[in-house]
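Review box. Two proteins, two foldings.
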Amino acid sequence: MIDPSARRSGYSYGPGTGTFAGRVGVRVAGTGIALPSKRLNNADLMKLMDTSDEWIVQRTGIRERRIIDADKKESTKTLGAAALRTALAEARMEASELDLIICATMTSEMQCPATANLICDILGAGTTGSFDLNAACSGFVYGMNIAHDLIRGGAYRNIGLIGADTLSTLMNYNNAGRGTAIIFGDGAGAIVMRATDDVNKGLIAQAMHCDGTGWKEIFVPKCERDFPAGAVIDPATMNKVHMNGAAVFKFAVSTFSNLIQETLDKGHVKVEDVDMFVCHQSNSRILESARERFGLPHDKLYVNIDRFGNTVGASVPLCLHELRAAGRVREGHKVMFLAFGGGLTWGSSLWQM
């Protein structure tokens, strides 16, 4: 029987041992990304719908996004597997060494099996546990919190976490879909999280929230009953993203800043002590509003939405990989990860790297 006092003091059962193991830290051992080969810039969209480069950039900050090429058999699973393969190589690990694979996605390959199961097969991970997590754009940050605590609690030592989405499969690239098609892009990012003897590494504070009453602001209907009451049902928009842009923007602007403050308060950390804010890339104006509220210097809030658009679950790990590659996020840094999306969901993860 586990002594509750030992659990509270940071001790847990070691994986598969049935004995107490000392409290462990958690570190990011490797990162990777995978992007589709096809580029879709604003000029390309202008040929498909009534829009302009100036209009898109002014409202979203996006100039280009990547979308999968079905002829090249690109999909959520191929991007996710490629991203995790790169992260494993950086961590100097084999897929079979992972205890668990989590794939944060809202564009799974099929209803069953989970996309994480398919990635497990592609990478030859054997009987490694795997499952999907769907919290829309917040999925990867939710996954960081879950994976961290599974390792910190002693159940697992090595976890591969993927954020992969292919929203191009849920778009109408015409005037009917221009409110969403200009925003979303496809991609994948992954991290390998490992147990470490350095107990100072890992989560400082985290938050996960949902306002279920706001589900109708971003949804993907499969049949007529999935539409909110009173909605005009257009069969051509079935299995496509429906988004109330104005409502989502208002939600994100207020939630984003409040989430930062909540996480700082929980971690007893000052905003100036955070070395980097790695935020979901939904809209450049939303990012700028948070920067202004907290007086953040430009080099502390990373932006790559101009090149990739909103890649949903892939957004945060794409940023993290680029920041690590540039040496802007490294061991010893305090890094806050933030996201918000459909659900309506929002979440944070403040780490000591």
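Next protein.
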Amino acid sequence: MLLITVPSAGKAKLTFSTFEDIDLPVPLNGIVAEINGDAVLKFDDEEDAINYAGELEDLSLKLNNKSSLENIAINDIILAIRDDEFVQSYLQNN
């Protein structure tokens, strides 16, 4: 199980409830909320996280308003996934 935290201090101020409020796709293994409000994404492995980031990138390309909360939240999530040390290691070795 791979857990990736998306800080609530990002540009979108993303929290667990933001996913429901703006109807963002949720990873297959779900999301949990930390006490400080951060959203923690749950994945089977690094490949699962990368695939989810790709799904979000595709969604972002379809959005007309690039400054919308939805698009900003998507970018925060993608950055959190790409910045994860396990994902970076996986990408370097594959």
